[in-house]
Design brief:
The complex is a heterodimer of chains A (about 300) and B (about 375). Chain A folds into 2 domains: about 160 residues, P-loop containing nucleotide triphosphate hydrolases (Rossmann fold), CATH 3.40.50.300; about 55 residues, no CATH class. Helices cover about 30% and strands about 30% of the residues of chain A. Chain A has 10 helices and 14 strands. In chain A, the strands form 3 sheets. A 6-stranded mixed beta sheet of chain A has the order 6-7-8-3-9-10, sandwiched between helices. In chain A, strands 2-1-4-5 form a 4-stranded antiparallel beta sheet, covered by helices on one side. In chain A, helix 2 crosses helix 3 and helix 3 packs across helix 4. The longest helix of chain A has 16 residues. With about 375 residues, chain B is mostly helical. Chain B has one domain. Chain B has a 3-stranded antiparallel beta sheet with strand order 1-2-3, with no helix packed on it. The longest helix of chain B is centred in the middle third of the chain and has 56 residues. Chain B is flat. Classes of the chains: A alpha/beta (about 300), B mainly alpha (about 375). Chains A and B meet through helix 2 of A and helix 1 and helix 5 of B.
Amino acid sequence: MAVIQLQDVEKVYRGKVHALRGVTIEVMDGEIFGLLGPNGAGKSTLVKILMTVIHASKVSGTMLGNPIGNRKTLKNVGYLPEHHRFPYYLTGKQVLHHYGALCKVGRKERNSRSSSLLTRLGLAGWENKKVNTYSKGMLQRLGIAQALMNNPALLILDEPTDGVDPVGRREIRDLLAELREEGRAVFLNSHLLSELEMVCDRVAIMVKGRVTMQGTIQSLTVDSQRYEIKITGEMPAWAKEHCSEVNGNMLVCKGNDPSIVQPILDRLRAENKTIVSVKPVRENLEDLFMRAVDNTDSPGAIQ
Amino acid sequence: MQFKALLIDAYRQLSAAKLFWVTVGISALVVVSFGSISFNTEGISIGFGAYQIESEQLREGSPWARGLYIGIFSSLLVNIWLAWIATILALISTCSIFPEFVHSGSIELTISKPIGRLKLFFSKYLVSLLFVIMQVAIFCTGIFFCVGFRIGEWNPMIFAAIPVVATFFSYLFAICVLIGIVTRSGITALLITGVFWMLLWTIQTSETILNRFVTQQIVDIERFDEGIITATEELDKIKSVSSEDIRISKLEKRIESFQDNSEEAAELLAELNMWHTPTSWVLALSPKTAQTIGLLDRWLSDPDGFDIAAIMSGDMREFEGEELEEFDPTTRNARERETMRRMRDDYENRPLFYVIGTSLLFEGFILGLASWYFCRKDF
């Protein structure tokens, strides 16, 4: 079942800036969905439309079965905005209580959930300290805890690992995997491709307000699967005819079926060529991203 | 639950501000100073007995003692401390509430919760007024006990200062909120609110000055017309006895002079009204800060007719036991007093709707604009 179903979302800001141009996205129940794109692609705008922070110029679709913009739906959605700021005068526990109460979470539940979430996010012992004493990584963890206070069915995280050290990133990845196991859907907005690749079931790539690719990483990279055969010595003359590409002493055969390289290997052996390696190769998310994005238009867009 | 969460948050935000506690401290000092004034059988004691002023009138149990004590509260503490100093401190403390609230990174966390923007806006606005309500409530409680213990009057009307001052503050705070939301800058909001307050003060002062001149001219015209009638009657009386009496020409000259003066005053009145009428309209449409605070004077006025406002303005006749003469329109001395009396009557008789209702309508308009902007804004 789809938890988010968006069709033709458009956003035009005053001054005629076309931030979103007919975005269509589907996020399924119990999956981690990654939205990636260079800075300024419209990722945060899309997320903010889902969370009613921004009004769409045109939107149709549903979130948790209700139309986009329905406030009651937000009771079951957890949200961590990018560059969030908590009131400096609150402690970690007070932050969770405050935002929990705004989500209409009862006092008893707030008490139990805040303690367990602070422990789960590695903030135990810091609950009574003012948030202005927290590091960037701790604030990010507190932000995730805040997003989980209402026990949401859908979690929307905008750059959740921003400013978090490698250990913390791993912990957040593990947490996301746990949340998926609990049956929650996670909508992850990030430009950290390696992070997304490790946790996402499906991804969408957004460029200049449009979704250019959407699906599982496997399905998106299936066309790029190939075998690379490295040999020593002179390249046989027939190689160019039987392989997709010949690159120095490397033969490239496109496809994901191992049977396609067997006749080539047999022939190479028959000609006493030394086979150094046979490697199945597939595009990673970064390759996929670079293919989708015209990188000359988006300097510094990916990390 | 959501309103309570916002209320607790506002309290935490305010109590985290040092200025809040500084203001509470100064308020406490003002209350203690007020409480240090007491009345005994010999007169008035100041500074918990440090200074003793002997007085026939200001003694324990006298209506003047009561009037003076209540008058110090309503005319000095409310008009100067609450309406100016404490309000400035409150504006400084609260000017950043809405800019902080709509700050990028902070607002997304709040408006992404299941709470309507309009409800959120007005809840935040109401809880932000908490600063003033708390300050004035603490202050009034102190004053209530001071008045109770010092003059034996447990007057609950003292607590009327809480809604009055909160309403007065809300006129200014509405502007602060609108500017704060649009500019997202506390300093800009504070400065523009200050300018707006000065503008209101200018409008109100201009209207008061013009009203005084207008009333003076009306009093003058009545005085001259009364003079003409008196002189004409006297002239008729003299003429009936002798037509060659030496006083006849004097009286005729006086009547002529009164007529000239009356015409001159009428012309001036018409000219003044050209300014006064539009100024009155502008005032009618704008928040009436001074008149709102002035409501306390009305409600706390002495039941025995003791006029603390007159004493405060330097008219000590009543205090000194002097009999107040009836208004004699032909004497110039009475002109100022009659003008002041009529003006006071005019302001005190202005209906509550005019004072508070129109001010709240203006505030509602400003808040409507601010809430519309808040609800429409893409953050």
